[in-house]
Structures are given as C-alpha cells and as structure tokens.
Amino acid sequence: MRKILYFLLIVICIVGVSLVNNERVHAAAPSATIKITTKETEVFDETLQKKLITLSKATPVIVLSEADGWTEIQYKTVIGYIPSEYLKSASPQYMLVQAKEEPLVRVTNKLQSEIKGKLHLNTIVELYGSATADFVFVKYGKLAGFVNQQALVKPVSKAMIVKSSADLVVREIASSSSQEIGVLRKNSPVTMLTNLKGWAFVTTDKLSGYVLTNGLITPPVEKEKPVKPVTPKPATDKKIALTFDDGPHPKVTKQILKTLEKYDAKATFFVVGQEVKEHPEILKAVYNAGHEIGNHTFNHEKLTTLQPEDIKQQIQSTDAIIKSTIGQRATVFRPPYGSYDETITDQLNVPNVLWTIDTLDWKHREPKKTVLAVKEGAKNGSIVLMHDIHQTTADALDEILATLQKQGYEFVTVSELLGK
C-alpha cells in the first residue's frame, strides 16, 4: 500500500512540474503583436526593480502580455517589462521575400544568433523600423525576428476585386489552417502584393492578409480620355495663379493661409498624400479658406520611374485621402519634378498642370530671391511654383502679394485661370 501511495505522489509531482513548465512556455511565447517604443526607455525584470537593458526610441518589440500599466516584451533574447505608455501600435511596411534560398529568421541581428525559422520565398512580410541596416526586424504570422534585408524587396502592387460570388476569408499566413483575421465582402477592391501557390497577399484601408487567389478577379478596364498638359490661356484681365507644392505643413501652411487672407488672394495647393494623412486638419483649413486642392501624388516619387500600377496607386490613393478629408477629390494634378509621359497622363481625369515661373524656393531658401523671381517673371496668365514646406517661402509671400497687387494683379486658382 505504501508503495502505491509513494508512486502516486511521484506521478502528481511530475504532472505538476509539467503544468508549471507549460505555463511558463506559454507565457513567453511571442504574440502576433508588435509595438514601437515612443522614447528611450529601460527594460526591467519581473520585480520591476532590476534594469535589464535600455531601448532607444522607435525600437520594435514583441508584446507578450499587458497588465496594470506594464507590458511584458521580448527584444532579441531579453524578456522584461516597460511602462505601457511608452509603446505605440506600429504600421508596418510590406516587403516581398526574394532570395536564392529561403532566408533565416534569427533571434538577434547577429549572423551567429539562434534561428527561429525560415521565410518562404515570394511571401509578404511586415517590416518594422528602418530598412537600411544589414538585418531588419520582420514578422510573418507568429514568426518574428531579424532577417537579412537583402532578402527583401519592395513588392509590385496590382489592383484586384473580390469576386461577386462569395465573401473572401482573410488569413494571417498563406495556409488554410492559419488564423482567420477578417472577411472581405463581395466586389471589394483590394491591392494585391504577391501571388503565391494559390494564395495572394492583399491589403485594403482596414485589412491586410492572405486570401485564396481564385477568389479575386482583375477589375474591368475603364478607358479614360488622355489628359494632356494644359497651356494657360492669356486672361482678359491681369490674373495670376500662385501654387504651393509638397504640403500641407503644420506651421508654414498656416502662415501662408494668413497672408493670403490678408490680401484676399486665392491659390492652389498641390498636396502630397502622406502629408495629408499626417495633417488632415491643415488640408481642411486650406479648403475651407476657398483655395483649390491639387493632387501631387502620395509620397512625391518620380512617376516616370514607376510601373503603371504603381503610378495609378500614387494618384488614386492621394485622391482617396483628399476626398475622405474634405469631401471631394483634387481638381488638378501636378507630377513631382514636372516629370510625365503618356502613361501618366492617360491615367488622369483632371488637368495636368505645370508652371511658368519657377521660384526655385526649395533650392536657395532665400526670401529675396523668391520675391525677385516672381517680380521679374510675372505677367498676365502666369502660374507661379512655390512650396508651402519652407519657412523662407512663407516669409517672402507678403512682399510678393503686396507688389503684384499694386501692379493690378488678381490672385486666382489654377482652374479659374484656365477657365475650367
């Protein structure tokens, strides 16, 4: 009898130890959540007394758990705690895995560090932080770690539509057994970044993940009338169009608006999509003041160096964010660097506008030179190129407006100048 009781006691102890170990393993297992540090911060052990390491600002970490104002995180081989207020949700950059062999994901950014897994070729991964280092931090499903950045390239996007026959399940990775993270409704437009053995990675404004490729179709092609660059017609009165590129800027654009209001002048602002995303309230102020809004692409890339689908994405994504901010799309377009061809103009349904006076304000950053360029070049029907991201341009504007107003000029939008 004693032997039986002794045996049962040993079994209970073994099971108990196993359960404890399982709990520890589970607690330390990385979640699918990555966050970014908002400031330089120290990582503490579980007692919250001993300092383990110090993380710099903008460091991506794996979130393990959150409770009572503290977040348990993993950074490389270190697991510890930092105040939850020092972390923010991260917006990843999507990258395509392309290499001769499946790249290894490591615990740290050292070539000799422990291997966590492999990335399948042609999959899309989430890149966090800078893409300039030798090793970068990425996540694919629940696999997160460091990979050689040479194995990653920027994917080529393609517009697709969910078939009208059924809704489409979105999964975390390219596997029917992976976690379901959402559903795309019938006929929903998506952007496809890769097509991998029956699986496609798609992204929308609200959802990104893998779907079955056979649930997508190419959208019908709508032929649009090519829009050629517009040459301004001489106005019957003395009219001139002031234009500002690359904003909106939280400080400079505000000052420019005040100066324009002082002279009852209207202007055209060719805005960049990513700046609108950062400062939507400034765009609303520009629009509400009666100025014209133009499309200047999403991140100011030279369009003639891009593929047609990327050009379309640059233009349409900017139109979309402008409309969601002020309720209407841009009424004119200006290509970055003034660089365009038929591939670009064929995708426009608004006037493609360049300029007749280039102040070069971006180059010299001197108010006097900006003023002089306008004074010497101004004539009836002129379109003046300036940038509302430079303080020196805002400083020059008052003298420009005062001088031209004395000469009898009226300040109008580009569309008004062109009679549109």
Mean pLDDT: 88
Using only C-alpha atoms, the radius of gyration works out to: 28 Å
Specify the number of helices: 10
Proportion of helical residues: 25-40%
Distance between the termini: 101 Å
Main beta-sheet annotation: 7 strands, parallel
Describe what you observe in this structure.
This protein has 420 residues and is of the alpha+beta class. The chain contains 10 helices and 28 strands. The protein has helices at residues 2-28, 252-262, 273-278, 280-288, 308-326, 342-345, 361-364, 367-377, 391-406, 414-418; strands spanning 34-37, 41-44, 51-55, 60-67, 70-75, 78-83, 87-89, 93-97, 104-106, 115-118, 124-128, 135-140, 143-148, 152-153, 158-162, 168-171, 180-184, 189-196, 199-203, 208-212, 216-217, 239-245, 268-271, 292-295, 332-333, 357-358, 382-387, 410-412. The strands form 7 sheets. Strands 22, 23, 24, 25, 26, 27 and 28 form a 7-stranded parallel β-sheet that branches. The protein has a 5-stranded antiparallel β-sheet with strand order 6-5-4-1-7, with no helix packed on it. The protein has a 5-stranded antiparallel β-sheet with strand order 13-12-11-8-14, with no helix packed on it. Helix 2 (252-262) runs parallel beside helix 9 (391-406) and helix 8 runs parallel beside helix 9. The longest helix is centred in the N-terminal third of the chain and has 27 residues, at 2-28. It starts with a helix and ends with a helix. Mean pLDDT is 88; it is low at 3-31.
